[in-house]
Amino acid sequence: MNILYFPKIESTQLYLSGLVRDGKLKGEMTVWTENQTGGIGSRGNSWIGERGNLFFSTAIRKSSLPSDIPPQSYSIYFSMLMRDILVREVSDIFLKWPNDFYLNSQKVGGTITNLIGDYVIVGIGLNTRYSSKFGSLELSKSNSDIMHQFVKYLRNPPSWNETFSKYQVEFEKSRDFAVKTSQGEKPLRYSKLLKDGSIEIDGEVLFSNR
User: Fold this and answer.
1) Distance between CA 93 and CA 154 in Å, rounded?
2) Taking the CB of residue 106, how many other CB atoms lie within 10 A of it?
3) Quick one: DSSP state of residue 18?
4) N or C: lower Cβ tally within 10 Å for the chain?
5) What are the structural domains, with CATH classification, of the chain?
6) Mean pLDDT, to the nearest integer, of 35-41?
7) Using an 8 Å Cβ cutoff, are 92 and 103 in contact?
8) What gap in Å lies between CA 45 and CA 6, rounded to an integer?
9) Which pLDDT value is given to residue 208?
10) Distance from C-alpha of 34 to C-alpha of 3, rounded to nearest angstrom
11) What is the value of pTM for the model shown?
């Protein structure tokens, strides 16, 4: 996989998405930076990350991933891969359903995925050093090391079945939070986690695709 570093970029996700849409990406690639000026968050929101933290996106072919991953739960899948890396450095970090990294009660990062043609484009932003508005992991390991560990994980990625088994335990840490439904905000403590990573609450099924 090719790895491309930018000292400064508007959005790693937009950059890779553009290459794929224009037919200019021939292989698989990771683009990363520590200075992203216009990051993208879930549901069209922006991700405001401060300089010095880690921002990267990876374009990987669907055929390179286990075939049992539900496409609507790619965000959970990739987030769990990163969570397994981060928990070695910060034991209290956890993944709030479906794609936000939390340390105690503070958000420290998130994941977004897009499907374009034969590619899955996963973007991850992490407050690895500091944040004036959110939480921070304050890692001693370099951003480059964290990113390279994630890329290495993708060489032999685990199955969805294996990942979901871990996430069933991880999901219990989300029950103190709430989620928006068509009927308003509902607490996750009353939800049921389904096998494809979606949740059912008061008869409504919410998917994890972001």
Assistant:
1) 21
2) 13
3) H
4) N
5) 2-172 (3.30.930.10)
6) 79
7) yes
8) 23
9) 65
10) 14
11) 0.92
